[in-house]
Fold FAD-binding domain-containing protein.
Amino acid sequence: MKSSISLRFVVIGASVAGLSCAYLLQQSGHEVLVLERSRRAENPDGGLKVPPNMARLLHLFPGTMEMLKEKATLCSGVYFLAGESSKLLGRMIFKEEIMSDLGSDFYIVAYSDFIAHLYNLCISSGVRIKHGFIAKNVVASSDSPPVVVSESGVQITADFVVGADGRKSITRQAIPSEEQESDDDLLEFHIPNGNKRATPKTELTPLLAANVTIPISLMKDDPQLAPLTRDDRFVVWTGNGSSVGTICCGGKFVLTYNTRPPGPNDRDLEWDDAAPASTFLERLKDYHPLVRKVARLAKSSHWTIQVPKDRSRFTNPQNNVVVIGDAAHTLPINATHSCSGAMEDAVTFGYLFSHLRSRNQVPLFLNGYNHIRGDRTKMSEELEFAGISLVSIPPGPQRDARDSALGMTLHLEGADDETLARVWGDYVRAFNYDAVDAVDEWYMNWAKPLHSAAHSAY
Ligand SMILES: Cc1cc2nc3c(=O)[nH]c(=O)nc-3n(C[C@H](O)[C@H](O)[C@H](O)COP(=O)(O)OP(=O)(O)OC[C@H]3O[C@@H](n4cnc5c(N)ncnc54)[C@H](O)[C@@H]3O)c2cc1C
Ligand SMILES: *[C@@H]1O[C@H](CO)[C@@H](O)[C@H](O)[C@H]1NC(C)=O
Ligand SMILES: *[C@@H]1O[C@H](CO)[C@@H](O)[C@H](O)[C@H]1NC(C)=O
Ligand SMILES: *[C@@H]1O[C@H](CO)[C@@H](O)[C@H](O)[C@H]1NC(C)=O
């Protein structure tokens, strides 16, 4: 669809959220400039998870499904193993049981392949991309258009600014927080150089997460480890108050560790801190020797504390700045929906603004955006954080109950729909979401009637 008016958009950040949003806006007739901090040559490794709710949207981006079919791994399922014994507790096999009904598959694709594809789509549709631009702040007021200021003082004016600048978003500062956090609401963490860091208290508990990466070339010659490198599944090792997830992608084997709220010993950890691999190994004492054997091959580990924020407002009061992707929400990193959430945001915003007929509609559309994404984001965040605590339950009756529920999934052959829905209801609810349908529904209910009413008044 083509929007009836053309606005000048500046998008900050050329990653999943920024590039997909830029492409959709440009295709619908707007004029888009993307500002990206890094130089083009960077080629980070790592794998993106593309669950069905994201794969379903890729028809909006020509050639992406073909690229995935050629380059991505089709993920066969999630396997839950007992951390101590490696006993199989449960499994969700994606292809046969669920995916045919959902009409989309679950892929793992190299971050660099996915970004390169979006990048080329943007360029061929006329999006301009400026590299080496480090945005310092976004100045917004109601009587003049928003301005993006770079670290070197360059100013760029637009009709509208889209902040797709990731977890440490600077654009987010242009959007007042929902309740101003008072000092007594802050938890303090002490960091080694004597500074103090504070994070706000929230209802969902924060997570301490860490990852290590091992080149699979180091594992290939070991008969115990080699089978892991051929894995096309996610494996979750359930622990006592923690869990370890493993995934294999792009020549790398990655372990991600998650544990409950930071305790006194974790106060030394900064955001995105690098630490020796031994720090990671110490945490794995109770885990199966195979997990420890892989982890021992790592050179270093990365640590981060993630605080869920439960936001429902992504736009500023002047209605000319929005945040999308990791800049907007607090989905756990490397989780199932961290990338799909960013894509859903981008599609929701881009597709909404392809319906724009006049500037007067902008506040209404932004209201729609907050409404649509607020509900969905809350659901995905709860699901991800709850999922992580479920696989970390310490020994006891609650864990036994979890294990017997997981055990049901081992005997699902021929199970009826009702049983499947009971076992996998939450997963399916998250996978079954269609961001385009959500906009269509909102548009039919709100924007169209208002538009018709306004016209019939003349
Ligand atoms: C280099 C890189 C590699 C990644 N690899 C993986 C991966 O392999 N697997 C995975 O699950 N997730 C990965 N992620 C994270 C993943 O992309 C996000 O979790 C998720 O997809 C949401 O994406 P996003 O576009 O909202 O944010 P991000 O992907 O974090 O992108 C933010 C973008 O904004 C740019 N930016 C930030 N601040 C500024 C500024 N002040 N001025 C200008 N530009 C700015 C950044 O350089 C980046 O390109 C990666 C992110 C990056 C940046
Ligand atoms: C995990 O997330 C980090 C940061 O968001 C990213 O750099 C990394 O590549 C991701 N790893 C995987 C395997 O997804
Ligand atoms: C689980 O962890 C707790 C706290 O660290 C510990 O006290 C307990 O002994 C552990 N239980 C088992 C079975 O390892
Ligand atoms: C591990 O986490 C760090 C920090 O979040 C990130 O920079 C790094 O890319 C991650 N690596 C992998 C392979 O996940």
Notes: The longest helix spans residues 362-390. The chain is about 35% helix and 25% strand. Residues 8-83+109-199+309-386+430-456 form a domain with the FAD/NAD(P)-binding domain fold (CATH 3.50.50.60). Confidence is low (pLDDT under 50) at residues 180-202.
